[in-house]
Amino acid sequence: MDIETYRNYCIGKKGVTEELPFGPDNLVFKVMGKMFALAALDEVPLRVNLKCAPERALELREQHEENILPGYHMNKKHWNTLVMDGRIGKKLIFELTDHSYDLVFAGLTGKQKKKLRNLE
């Protein structure tokens, strides 16, 4: 998957912003100011870090051991790195992106959740 396809998917989600807080090579997607995805723009193939439930993260790493790795420079219990070289299907990539977004949403305060739900 290319960065434009992935970027368009992420910014199409409610309340998402994009930033380059770690320099020009790492595009970060946030919901209500909280990171749910980080794309390494200088990596070929594209690599994306996503938050994941710990037990699911382990299962995914076992099923896709060459393409889903412990999160690079992240808490390896809660983050995975996806290597997008074509061996992980678009459907799974988007499902895992949604899962990451949902985990971050679940951790928001009630006030933040309400604000996000009221966004157009």
UniProtKB/TrEMBL annotation:
UniProt keyword DNA-binding, yes or no: yes
Keyword Membrane (UniProt): no
Molecular-function annotations in GO: DNA binding
Entry keyword set: DNA-binding
InterPro entries linked: YjbR, YjbR-like_sf, YjbR/MT2646/Rv2570-like
Database matches in Gene3D superfamilies: 3.90.1150.30
Domain of life according to the entry: Bacteria
Protein name: MmcQ/YjbR family DNA-binding protein
Organism: Autumnicola musiva
